[in-house]
Structures are given as C-alpha cells and as structure tokens.
C-alpha cells in the first residue's frame, strides 16, 4: 500500500498536513501527536518583521465552526529561523513555511531569507488572509494582482511555491489559472471564508475586527466544491483544506482532486486529529483495496 | 510540567450553588497534575460546538483524582454541562495554563481577591495557602447576598465580602472593601473581571504589594498555538516577540507589573 504523494518534486510520506495558523510551528501540538507521522507541518504565517496582530476578541464560535481574526500575529522570520526551523528539523516530516507580507517586497524578503534553509521543503504564500487590511487578501482577490505577486516570488524562491487561495472570490478557477500561469508549483485552498457574528445582548461584534475568517466542519462542502473546480482548472497539484474533521472528510477532498490535504480548526477540537486522519486514510485504503493513494486523486 | 491530554472524565456529582452557577465534581486522572489557578477545556457533546470551554479549577484532590469546577451558565455550551448528572462522561483537555505562583507567598502577608465567577479558582488557592499556614485575608465580591462558596472561604482565614447591592459586607466592590478595612498585604492573588483586576493592580501599587492576576479571554485551542487569547504586555516576550502574551499558556496568571491592561 502506498500513501506517498509527490508535489512539485517533493515527496510526502502521506497527504496529511496541518493548515497554517492552526498548529503554530508544531511545538504546541507535539505534546499530543507524533509529528513524524505527518506528511508535512505547515507553519503559521511568518512575515519579515514581528507582527502584533489584531485586538481581542480574536476568536468566536459559530455553529459548526469558528471565526478568527488573529491578524497574522507572528514573531518574524528571524525567530522562525532561530527557533522553529531547528525544532522541526528533528522530525521526519516535510516542512512548509507559510509566508505573509504587506507588500511584494515584504514577501520577497522572507522568501530570500529562506532560500538557504535546507529544512524548508516548500513555501506556501498567503495571499488570502481576510483579517489584515493591507497585503494578504489584496493580492488574493484579483487574478492580475495574484499573477504579478506569484511571478515575482517565483523569481526569488529556491523552494517550490504553493499559492494559498481565498474562497472569497467570484471564480476560484480563474484564480487557480492565474497562479498556474505565473509559475506557481502548486495551489492550496481554501483559506477561511469571511464571516461576521453579532452579540445581540451586548449589541456588539463578537470579534474586535468586526469580520473574521470562518473555518471548521460547516465550511467543508464549500471547500470541497472549490477544490473540485480549481483542480479541474489547472494541471498543478492542489492541496485541499476547509473543515476536515476526519479521514472520510480528507478522502472526499482527495477524490475531488486534492493531492494533499490539511487539517485546520479541528486541531482545536481534537488535538489528535491529524494523526487520526493519517491512520483513517490507511484503514480506508485497506478496506477498499486501494493500492496507491494516487489512484483516487480526482477519481469522481 | 505534565503532558497535556484530551481525555474522558466522569461526573461524580453536580449541583446548583447559586443562580446560574453550577458546582460539578469530575473524576479524572488529570487531577494529579493540577495546581491552583490552572484550568481545563471542557467539550460539549453537541458537535456543532467546536471549541472547548475554558473553565477554572475550583479545587482538586490528587488522591481521589477529582477536579471541582464551579462555573456560570454563560451560553449554550455551559447550559449543556449544567444538565449532566452523576455518571455522565465528558471530554476534557488539560491541565492548561500556569497556576498562581505559590512560592511568592512564603512568609508573606497574602491577600486573595475574587469577583463574580472569578471567585471559584481562589478557593483551591486559599485552601492551599492555609495548609502552609500563610497569613491570608480573602476579599470576595458578589452582586448580592447570594455569596456562593463564602462559607468554604471562611474556613481558610479572614474573609471580607463586598456586594454591589450592599446586602452583605461592604456595599461596593472588592477594592471598596479593602479600603474600608484598611487591608494591607505583601502579595495579592486575584481573579475576576478586567475592571476589577485593574483596580487590584492599582491598589497593589498603593499598598506596595506584588499582584498576580488571573485573566480570561475568548480562547480557541487552549494550548498556545492559535494566538486567539492574547493580552497586552509591557515588554516583548520570548515567544511572541511582540507585546502580546498568550493567556492560555503564558498565563492565565500574570505578574501585574508585566501587563499593560
């Protein structure tokens, strides 16, 4: 039985990854799961300098999921290189660093800084965070802007890049095509869906930022649809995510066309979720007589 | 520190101790790792609720392996917990956070201040301090004469009560009660709403005491990964490299001098 997948020349022991921002750099969840079991750890977004993020409350629960507007708080690339990458180097898993910025030059600075980091196997470029005013989503909602930033980053990146797409667009296929045309090696989707919650007793927004990105099981059908549409629009591999709770959900994404899958908000509900998805996929393959996970990618 | 786990606990008993306030005793091996001021995440059975509810540990018994949680019914999750009877199985995540730094109380005059649903974790703390024969004064603030847990605090040392409606003790808040009684201390431990904690921090300055405050905030992961529950700090810290500490893992108890609240 083969669970290995290949994305842009990088081999992953299985398709299961962590969704950026839900798993830190793996340190916190290494108390619960063996990181060696995962296909990849995808880090929380990192910028050229430390970012303080948004005001609190930053999170709110909604039916079947949650809203967050953390605002990409992160300690900056220097700390990532000094603390998080050496920590991850001790594990037999692939490392994908999620990169964020306010301008193209911000992104490029981080990408350049990571060029010689042997322990970083891929870069995921976050152009889809709905919670920061400048940069982020500004590049992720317009195909021309997405094309431009992808092309610029591709000039600098030593590792293969994954453009992470926003669901808050009219046509996900068009965005996927723009990323591919500009040379992106893969795409990942979906980032969170912009939402809002109001506390009717206090007559206030539940989140200080007013809007937040929705994640969790409730968004899964939207994510599966978008992964299906995107993977049929491009030839580059797709990493699917959005509301994956268990192996069945992950397999749904794979059958929709995803080569890799990522577990996000479910880590908060079940800190063992990532490894349970790995084991569940193996069990499913055995039960269904599937020899190679690659045989069921996009099989619907 | 002990490894965090998500495990099944069993409800030993549960009762109402005040209007909308429940007192639940859980049997769980997590009790072995508990310290006063720490908390657990409690999951609802309704899977539409994704996130664990952070609930402070009122008391723990390491030998009996029990955790006592006293919580207010504040939404649909806690409303579900309130329905649990003896024998109910519940998923919990713990032990979370750092407790009150008890070592700071050694040979010191200690003041313990609680307000509203910030009162419960101070009971376990006060009992622990009493065991060490610490000189403790406790000041608890309530809305009205429904002064839950107060009889248990009385067994730990000198107790002062403040009520908003003046029905018991000092009419006003906990700081009013401290002033009225001229309470002095070297070390203050406090838990309660943010306006109260700000009052405690400035009262501590007035009387020249060190204050350790237990904070709360909307939380998602509870283990330090999501950065949802931060509080502002005066200096950058080792983890964030910005002036934000994580309440779930760097706290919930902080040295008041480190906070920008």
Explained architecture:
- The complex is a heterodimer of chains A (300) and B (261).
- Chain A is of the alpha/beta class.
- Chain A has a single domain, classed as Alpha-Beta Barrel (TIM Barrel), CATH 3.20.20.
- Chain A has helices spanning 77-89, 104-113, 137-140, 143-156, 172-181, 220-233, 247-256, 266-269, 273-288; strands spanning 5-7, 10-12, 16-18, 40-42, 59-62, 65-68, 94-99, 122-126, 161-164, 186-189, 193-196, 198-199, 204-205, 211-215, 238-241, 260-263.
- In chain A, helix 5 crosses helix 6 and helix 6 runs parallel beside helix 7.
- The relative contact order of chain A is 0.17.
- Chain B has 261 residues and is an alpha/beta fold.
- Chain B has two domains: 5-95, Translation factors (Elongation Factor Tu (Ef-tu), domain 3), CATH 2.40.30.10; 102-258, 3-Layer(aba) Sandwich (Rossmann fold), CATH 3.40.50.
- Helices cover 17% and strands 34% of the residues of chain B.
- Chain B has a seven-stranded antiparallel sheet.
- In chain B, strand 1 (5-18) and strand 2 form a beta hairpin.
- The model of chain B has no long low-confidence stretch (mean pLDDT 96).
- The A-B interface holds A 21-24, 28-29, 31-32, 44, 50-53, 56-61, 63-66, 68, 70, 73, 75-76, 79, 216-217, 265-272 and B 3-6, 43, 47-52, 93, 217-231, 236, 239-244, 249.
């Amino acid at each position: 039985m083969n669970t290995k997948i290949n994305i842009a020349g990088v081999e992953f022991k299985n398709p299961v990854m962590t969704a950026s921002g839900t798993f830190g750099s793996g340190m916190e969840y290494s108390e619960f799961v063996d990181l060696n079991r995962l296909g990849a750890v995808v880090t929380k977004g990192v910028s050229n300098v430390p970012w303080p993020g948004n005001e609190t409350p930053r999170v709110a629960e909604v039916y079947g999921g949650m809203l967050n507007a953390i605002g990409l708080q992160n300690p900056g690339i220097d700390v990532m290189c000094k603390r998080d990458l050496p920590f991850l180097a001790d594990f037999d898993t692939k490392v994908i660093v999620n990169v964020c910025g306010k301008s193209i030059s911000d992104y490029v600075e981080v990408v350049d800084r990571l060029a010689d980091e042997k322990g970083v196997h891929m870069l995921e470029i976050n152009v889809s965070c709905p919670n920061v005013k400048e940069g982020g989503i500004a590049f992720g909602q317009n195909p021309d802007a997405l094309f431009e930033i992808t092309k610029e980053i591709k000039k600098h990146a030593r590792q293969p890049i994954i453009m992470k797409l926003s669901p808050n667009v009219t046509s996900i296929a068009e965005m996927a095509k723009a990323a591919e045309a500009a040379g992106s090696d893969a795409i990942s989707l979906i980032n969170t869906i912009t939402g809002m919650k109001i506390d009717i007793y206090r007559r206030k927004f539940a989140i200080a930022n007013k809007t937040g990105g929705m994640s969790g099981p409730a968004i899964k059908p939207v994510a599966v649809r978008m992964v299906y549409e995107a993977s049929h629009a491009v030839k580059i591999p797709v990493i699917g995510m959005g509301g994956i709770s268990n192996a069945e959900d992950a397999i749904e994404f794979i059958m929709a066309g995803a080569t890799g899958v990522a577990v996000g908000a479910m880590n908060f509900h079940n800190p063992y979720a990532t490894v349970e998805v790995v084991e569940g996929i193996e069990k499913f393959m055995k039960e269904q007589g599937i020899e190679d996970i690659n045989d069921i990618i996009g099989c619907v | 520190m002990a490894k965090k786990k998500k495990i099944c606990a069993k409800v030993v008993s549960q009762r109402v101790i005040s209007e909308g306030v429940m007192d639940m005793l859980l049997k769980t091996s997590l009790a072995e790792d508990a310290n006063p001021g720490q908390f657990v995440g409690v999951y609802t059975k309704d899977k539409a609720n994704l996130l664990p509810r952070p609930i402070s540990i009122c008391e723990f018994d390491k030998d009996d392996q029990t955790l006592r949680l006293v919580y207010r019914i504040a939404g649909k999750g806690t409303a579900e917990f309130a329905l649990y009877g003896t024998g109910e199985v519940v998923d919990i995540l713990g032990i979370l956070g750092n407790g009150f730094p008890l070592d700071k109380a050694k040979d010191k005059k200690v003041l313990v201040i609680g307000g509203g649903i910030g009162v419960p974790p101070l009971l376990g703390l006060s009992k622990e301090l009493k065991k060490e024969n610490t000189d403790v004064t406790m000041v608890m603030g309530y809305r009205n004469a429904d002064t839950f847990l107060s009889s248990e605090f009385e067994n730990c040392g000198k107790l002062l009560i403040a009520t908003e409606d003046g029905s018991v003790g000092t009419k006003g808040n906990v700081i009013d009660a401290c002033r009225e009684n001229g309470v002095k201390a070297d070390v203050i431990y406090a838990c309660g709403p943010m306006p109260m904690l700000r009052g405690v921090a400035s009262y501590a300055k007035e009387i020249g005491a060190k204050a350790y405050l237990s904070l709360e905030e909307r939380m998602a992961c509870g283990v330090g990964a999501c950065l949802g529950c931060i509080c502002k700090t005066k200096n950058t810290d080792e983890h964030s490299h910005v002036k934000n500490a994580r309440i779930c893992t760097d706290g919930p108890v902080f040295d008041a001098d480190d906070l920008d609240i």
